[in-house]
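sorry to bug you again but im stuck and you know this stuff better than me. what follows is a protein written twice so to speak, once as letters and once as structure tokens for the fold. id like you to explain what the token line says about the fold, in plain words if possible. anything you notice is useful, everything is just below.
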Amino acid sequence: MGEVYKARDTRLDRTVAVKVLPEHVAADPEFTQRFMREARTLAALSHPHICPVFDVGRQHGIDFLVMEYLEGDTLAHRLAKGALPIAQALAIAIQIADALDRAHRAGIVHRDLKPGNIMLTKVGAKLLDFGLAKTPGGVISGADASMLPTTPGNLTAQGAILGTLQYMAPEQIEGQEADARTDVFAFGAVVYEMVTGKRAFEGKSQASLVGAIMHAEPPPPSSGKPLASRSVDRLVRKCLAKDPDDRWQTARDLLDDLKWATEAGSQQGAVVPVAGPRPGRAGRARLAWIVAGIALAVATAAVWQQRRDTAAADPVTRFEIVVPPTDSPTSLALSPDGRQLAFVATTEGQSRVWVRPLDDTDARALAGTEGASFPFWAPDARAIGFFAEGKLKRVDLTGGAPQVVADAPNGRGATWNSEDVILFTPGNVASTRDSVITRISASGGTPMAVSHLAAGEGSHRWPQFLPDGRRFMFFSTNGRPDTQGVYLGSLDGGEPIRVLATETPGVFVPPDRVLLVRGDALMAARFDAEQGTVVGELMSLVQPVGRDDGVLASAFSVSPGTLAYRATGGSQRRQLVWMDRSGRMVGSIGSTETNQLAQPALDPGGQRIAMNRNLMGNFDIWLLDTSRGIPARFTFDPALDAYPLWSSDGRRVIFGSSRSGPVSLYEKAASGAGDEHLLAADAGVPLSWSADGRFVLYSRADPKTGTDLWVLPMTGERKPLAVVQAAMEQPGGEFSPDGRWLAYESNESGRFEVYVQPFPDAGGKWQMSSAGGTQPRWRRDGKELYYVAADARLMAVPVATNQDGKTPGLGVPAPLFGTRLATGAGVTAGRPEYAVAPDGRFLMNTVVEDTAPAPITIVLNWDSGLKR
């Protein structure tokens, strides 16, 4: 993680090496702490074969270490030329074993021993780079920086993988405790490479390499290097034992055996020719047959060894990656080659995209990705796309600020092909524009829809290009059972075909697999990409795999040979509770539910609650009696039914539904009797119904201006009218009880604030909130307006009407109490998660328990069983 410079110490007149933190991590206190721990570790080790540290400090904002300047080359560079002579290899091994013994006696485990960290100088070998060392007291240096703020203590016990994959012990790969025996394993791999010129474990892919480390035994060094003694074979074999208990238990014991092997090697190293009579013709014939037999035996053994190595690479290998918490547990994506993992994690209250190479120990957060969700990779793995701040963005991994590609109010998945075409879903089911698969160049431009909603479809989301870069899979959701499922579409046009009837998205894996989640099990089936058909039955791979039924996504990502998934997606247990103005809970309604309740609406008398409820991905409206707390289903269509509004007399309910395609407005008797009838097709999300019953406020997405506010007159021609229309987002709002004012939220200032303007005739507007505000609600008498501040506190603003009747008299916003309102309900934002009762109490959809998402599990050779 450091940059090293050759420098001159002018005080002592000597050449030194100065190691500094690179600029991109220097401002991160976690990396600074790791840097300083390396300095303290080196300072505690005085040994002729460990590179010493002379000084440490900070000047002009730069952290630095001053170390001995070593003239020579790394062992890795030397081994690029081939194996070392046996005597030289053993001499270097003795020096490094002696250095390890000194470190282990000080309670320090190196954990990244490899040829690149061994310097060959005129005075012998020097052990370098203790940046990943485990030090006394369980302090871990060099842990994945994303873990440090949230997982104190011994990180290796929690599944963190530390080290370089080629030299990692099996227990490191499995995320288990690392101790001196872990260094012994890496030491054995280094000795093997010095003696033979080949690495102890090889693989054509990361998956097969891990499989070899976990299950294969390398050929003894003497099989390729006859001058290597049997004692060297024994030493290496014991170092590379899979079980730590079977290895040398201390570096001191290892050092003693090395010295013995050196002595033995000096006696066995000479090859002495044996003289004898030259064979005659018959003898030469017999010798030819013997040589041929030996050659056949060697060839047979080689084939058997190759098959054994191949079989050893096939077994499935699992390990966990511990990452910081996240509010978006389904936001994870493997690179196309399966070598890197992108995921969304939250540190210091801000979510970002993080990238973790699977053969490295560190994940890094990508600058400029604040508020990100649903990352996806460029086909060459050099860039990542993501959604944030209502936009589709991309960021190059080589550096530079993220670029905005397109508007995406509520992005629901994207995919990127080799021709730099991105397919994405801009939003959810709020409008036709937002809820279909849309095409755009990766450099930006004009979006163009490549799918359209048929009757009974709610939205198209989670697109994925097939290898030809023309066809793509996507998921049609919130529709009827005869329409919902995985579809195959094409950039060339034509009607998409349904591949699978399912309640979760499908993912294609070249050359012929499709994966999806059913229940909590990840299933796989063969897929004929040419015909667009599933062949055979679905087979279970792993269980459980998390789901987010709000956005209808699954917590897994897959590439050929590598699978990443979360066993649970994280959840919120929610409870409808009554709060007074001081924030004291004065009652509750019903039982707690997991990720199901959303956007409660109280009837005018405060006796009944209409709310969204999500059961297994199906959104419907349910009614609760506040005295009994028993939910009763109000809508029954398999499409999305949500966003209920009460009439002023409590006899009617207006709601939004995708049963006929994009969200339309429907009305139904509150008693449940009779059928629903359509009020306005392709309208948007209903927000408020005026007390006089004359107007319904709703939000609707516009291709040019974003999400706007419209009103539907309930009398006359019922021609919709735009009331707030501008090039920004206005997702939510509410009429005042007297119908003279409209409170709404808008991000016109760069963040969401609450505004008030006259209604129905616009005559100016006034900002009600400061430092951020959303979810406006009026008190039942209209003399106070509430909103949720950026710090989650419920705020109250006194409101009066001035004598001119055209301007509001506004007081100063005052905090009432902190909230824990539910989030991530999976339906459109803009509807509050609380309601105001006639007696002044607040009905809050409160999170009573958070369940953190599980670590990310990596499965190598996940398709091993399917191949057979």
Observations:
- DSSP finds twelve helices and 58 strands in the chain.
